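Our platform keeps sequence and structure together, in a single record for each protein. Nothing more is needed to write down the fold, since each code stands for a local backbone conformation. An entry from our holdings is shown next, in its original layout:
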Amino acid sequence: MSVNIAVVGATGAVGEEFLRILESRKFPINELRLLASRRSAGKKIQFCGKEHIVQELTKNSFKDIKIALFSAGASISREYVPYAIESGAVCVDNSSAFRMDDDVPLVVPEVNTHDIPKHHGVIANPNCSTIQLVVALKPIHDAAKIKRVVVSTYQAVSGAGLKAIDELEKEAKSILEGKEGFQRKLFPHQIAFNVLPQIPQSNAFLPNGYTSEEMKMVNETKKIMGDNSIRVTATTVRVPVVRSHSESVNIETEKKITAAEVKRLLSTAPGIQIIDDPAKQLYPLATDAAGKDEVFVGRIREDVSLDNGIDMWIVSDNIRKGAALNAIQIAEKLL
């Protein structure tokens, strides 16, 4: 069955990835409607060998649309998702606008596909760092019940959009050429050859000292896993990597589980690829994960400071599985 699809934010980093994945997975599309801001309207984009013209997003953009993929920011989603639902579309929203609403499913297909039918016109795509985390946590939780998770992230600049990639590249070039006075526009401090324990890059910190990104991971993990008893703490960090987020994860379980058992569980879990041979210096790398669909897991070992503890390293492409691919997997389940 072919359906009419709208992509909102078609000219952004995730929007472009939507189109690549829709094409490569041969998603059954009858009509593809590309939507963006007024300044991007009229731009021509190739899809499946045909030229498509980007249209300006308006409240009337969703007539006859079956599924609308949104990736244009929370404010745009709050304004236009209701129009899409009113037109009869089901929206898969990549922003934070609806994630924690009680009546909106927050879905990672490898973890909680059963929540999809509960939607009332909108299904939320989780935060990119949360997605790769819960894909790896779910098999362990099912086997040994996770009590606590401590996660530190190493997040690529592409998580902040195409302009962030441009700023990293230009700042790095400026430094390498010995030029001073680079005028950054997005990041609060130098990002080239540096590490910033602040995401997002503005208005990040909450009264409890955590950033909004960190609290997204805390709250979204519990909602997706369907277990509020899991204690989660996070430190999210921006690193000068273009693509793919990395995470150092420490897990405490109720039941003892060995590193060998974790490897065995994850090796057959959907969406996961194990790369774990320290003797050969084999472990997940951001450069290797870029452009790939899988969540890569390695450095799996038992925590020497804790009886029921497991440490691991998780890497995934934040634009693919962390955004566009996860949304399209949800759309495939809708069909």
